[in-house]
Every structure is written in structure tokens, then in C-alpha cells.
Amino acid sequence: MKIFPVAVQPYTVRDALRQDYWGTLEKIAAIGYQGIELGLPPEGITAEEQLQRLNGMGLQIIGSHASFNSFDVDFNRLIGHMHKAGGKYIAISLMFDSKDDVLSKAAQLNQIGELCRAAGITFLYHNHDWEFRQYDGEYVLETIMRETDPQLVQLELDTYWVRKGGEDPAAYLAKWKGRCPLLHIKDMEPGEDQYFAEIGEGILDFPAIAQAAADAGTEWLVVEQDGSRRDPLESLAISYGHLERMNLIRTTAAR
């Protein structure tokens, strides 16, 4: 089984970051996470300070999730920041109200992907469950992937949202061999609510998912938990511990 480096999507700890930016990042690094999807620093912190402090923590910026349901992003500025930070990926998420809307936005994804490719950055699309709605008998996500150039737009698949959309994450990931460099991993509680769960605390089969990710060429596992019944930092620690016990992640020597 491949051993992956493991990162965090900081939406998990969004409230804590607003209250204590540096302290929260230090706690993430102390758990053992090696990477983070992180964009431009908040007001009052320079990019140079951000990178210097993160380097001291041993926390690598691997990329950034740029926006949710919007193309209103200064991609040139974000690309410049990724170059300074060493990040390789920029991702966005969208919503759709018709097949024409899907096709129009897919064309825009190609345009942004071309901008990113020219700058040496890989552009990713991140799914939720609504991409498993169908227009003309085809999932929205399938349409996006068919209508975008693999050289311009890759995928940041999310295991929880695939399962909530009605598909098996491992089997679905196998469809996108060579096109999913980052994989968002989160678990799902049993029951009708299908609430978010820490990795290893829910119903998803992460050894099978990790094997599919290895076969697909995935580079990083990225833990994200949109909501938690515990303190989110405790949730991140629980997820890390289970991934470690499953022997799926590369761990640091000391934490």
C-alpha cells in the first residue's frame, strides 16, 4: 500500500483561525500534518511572514482553494503567491442550475486552467454532492470532466460528497486515473443524517479508497471535515490517528 503525505483543508478550523491564526496552524502542525491548502494571509500578515512561520512549523503550502461558486478571483495574484509558497495547485468549487450553465462554466474552467498551466500551476475542480445531479442522463461532474481538457483542469475529488451523491468513493476514483492529484478525505456517520465524521469513525472504507488513490496517481490526501460534533482540532487529531493506524500516511518522527 502506498504511504501518502497528508495535508489539511483549513475550512475545518475556520473559526479557530479567525481567533488565533498562528496558534491554530501550530496545533495542526503539532498533530503531524505535513501540508495545508492555504491562500493569501489575512490582513496584517505579509506573505513572507506567513511562509517563514509555516516553514518553521514544518507545514508546507501545497495549494489553495480559491473560491466557492464564484470566478471572481485574482488568479494572477494567487498564482504569484503559490510560486512564492511552493504550492502547485489551485482549486475552486461551483454550483449549477442547468445543463447550459454546466457547459458555460466548464468553458470558463478551461480558460482558468490555461492561465494556470502557463504559470506552472495545476488547476483543480472540487466536487460536492450536487454534481451528482443529472442533466440528460449524465452526472454534472461527468459533464464537467468531459467538457474540460485534462491538460487544463484536473480533479480534487471529495470522498464524503461522492458517497452522499450516491456513488462509492473508491470505485468512482478509479474512473479518474491520472486526473486526481489531490483527494479530499472525510468520513460519514451511519444513519439518515449522513453527518460528517472523523476518518475511521464512519462508514467509508479508507483502505480501499487509499488503494484506488494510489492506482489513480493521487499525490496528497487532504483531510477536511466541514462540520464536527467535537472541537475541530480534536477531530483533525482523531482523523490523523486513524490514518496512522491504517498505515496510510507518512508520519513525522516527532510530534
From TrEMBL:
Coiled-coil regions listed: none
InterPro entries in the record: IolE/XylAMocC-like, Xyl_isomerase-like_sf, Xyl_isomerase-like_TIM-brl
GO MF annotation terms: isomerase activity
Domain Xylose isomerase-like TIM barrel: 25-231
Keywords noted in UniProt: Isomerase
Highest rank taxon of the organism: Bacteria
Annotated protein name in UniProt: Sugar phosphate isomerase/epimerase
Organism: Paenibacillus protaetiae
